[in-house]
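User: Quick one: structure for sequence A, then sequence B.

Assistant: Sequence A:
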Amino acid sequence: MEEQLKPHQAERGQKSTLVGIAVNIGLVLVKGTAGWLGNSYALIADAMESATDIVTSIFVWIGLRTAARAPDHNHPYGHGKAEPLAAIVVAFALVGAAILIAVQSIQNIRVPHETPAPFTLAVLAGVVIVKEVLFRRVAQVGHETESSAVKADAWHHRSDAITSLTAFVGISIALIGGPGYESADDWAALLASGFIVYNAYHIFRPSFGEIMDETPEGDWQQELQTLAMTVPEVKGIDKFRVRKTGFEYFVDLHVRVPGNLTVSQGHDIAHAVKAAILDARPAVYDVLVHIEPV
């Protein structure tokens, strides 16, 4: 069962990523054109953020395809680390986009310019709706597949929605305020860059933890220890470790058994513990059980 899980998860993640790429190509064209014609740097900055979405989504797609590859001689534990690596690339790309937007916003604030055109508000309202819907759909796929790369891709869509929303507010202030408020559009873009950096950290932190074999979120230890204790002759648990690699989890544990058992009996107990965990958690790829006599 667990051998079929990873290809299915990878396929779902890849499909959601390709949909995001297609949507972002259209949004870059719409926002870039509207920003140029409507004299709105916030909208142009928004288009730049969508352009980074395309690039990073390609990295996510590559990472998902690589993570789904079967183990080989050089990678006996599989290629799952490619998945959080792709998420980290997304995080750094977001930071780069935020810096670029912030620098250009500051330059525009210092140089007087015209108030953005009113029609840009309609464009931004549509963009916010599209990106929020896309975020929710991709986030759901990321949650169901437990993919850090897909979750990162989802949060990139959310950061784009936030950028569009701040641009909407900035342009509204510029239009309502009239003369003297023209730079509200640029202040909105500057504020959006801060939100983008926050989202980048939100993506980077769990992905880096996965690279460092950090204990996964959730009550894994208690649940799996309880399962191991249901196996006859298991008297206790000495050590327990869980790490996530791509779409899968690896479990290492030391179980205490009576010291008068034969090697064959200890071997059977280890297999029974492994089977109990694999049956309960299909996402677990392998379980290494060490027998401790008591």
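Sequence B:
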Amino acid sequence: MPVEIEVDPGEVGFDAARLRRIDRHFAQYVEAGELPGWLVLVARGGKIAHLATHGMRDVESGAPVRPDTLFRIYSMTKPITSTAIMMLHEEGAFELTDPVSDFIPSFADLRVYTGGTARAPQTRPAGEEMRIWHLLTHTSGLTYAFHYLHPVDELYRRAGFEYGMAADLDLAGCCDEWASLPLLFDPGTAWNYSVATDVLGRIVEVASGQTLDEFFRTRIFEPLGMTDTGFAVDRADADRLATLYVADPQGRARRHPRHDEAFEAAFELPKALSGGGGLFSSANDYHRFTQMLLRRGELDGARLLGSRTVDYMTRNHLPGGADLETLALGAFSEAANAGKGFGLGFSVLEDPVAGKVLGSAGEFAWGGLASTAFWVDPAEDLTVLFLTQLMPSSTHPIRSQLHQLVYQALVD
């Protein structure tokens, strides 16, 4: 279902002319060949006040981005998985302090990297068990193969995780393989963006007795009316799927070199369901997900989470109340680190001044590898969504620029 504008901007505190600055600014990226196309959605008070598209979902064929275009949302899958985990937590399936090994036995007796090379790593026993809250906060000691910053990252690549999940393993097999590799640090002592949310997806399966796609569909997507979101795209919707682009050394968008493979793979349920980055979605669907979060767990009579649970998830859970600037190892993340903590599945803005960007304390957010982004600002009753398909997300400062352009348009 395509989205549409629901309220005059002035009725919810926006200056319509100032909102159009968003469109003019990001249109420049398309005209310069630096983005293929994009969609932006701004809602306040639960009503969409600004919706715009520009450019192409497929540059080569000239097919434009439309309100019903389907996008690979990559790590914007993570907040959905975190929601699933917390739904099970609310049912008493586990405590946040429970060891991961209670659900995935291979995570017992973990080891931590201490030196050496990827070919000959030196390790010691972990000084702390990995617990569920470590996974939710990315303080688990796990990593991603694409970081290229640490010998353990290389070990992940050698194990077949260069492009996400290993091709020959299901989710349970991927988790067992990750458990066999050294951790970067003792759980709870640092922050590193990682496959932790994929491990959470496996815990959802074990705790619920459902596959991850079944849990998402029956417990989240159907109750929220998210009809376009899943781990695969229906072939009947092939013409709605945006093409994936990558940035060349000059920052210009080029069709992904594995486009044909990625396009065909989109129509088949993957062997390993990635709760960290495997979903496709649309603006309408993800807007409904953000509205559920803004309304503290409920939308149109469907309650997924208790209000206090959402409040708890969107507080900073980093040890000692540290921000990401202090605790992160310097690896890639979907957020600038200054002034931001991390909750149970979201970055949490605590100090907009430290972050040097317009925003509100208490805003929570995340993004995806193909430059997608969203945030929820309870203080302003605001949600914002930006969808495009350019890898990596660090190519352009889209997220910080979108912040300044949205907030300057608020005039009430």
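The two ends are 31 Å apart (CA to CA). The domain at 9-83+211-407 is CATH 3.40.710.10 (Beta-lactamase).

User: Thanks, that's what I needed.
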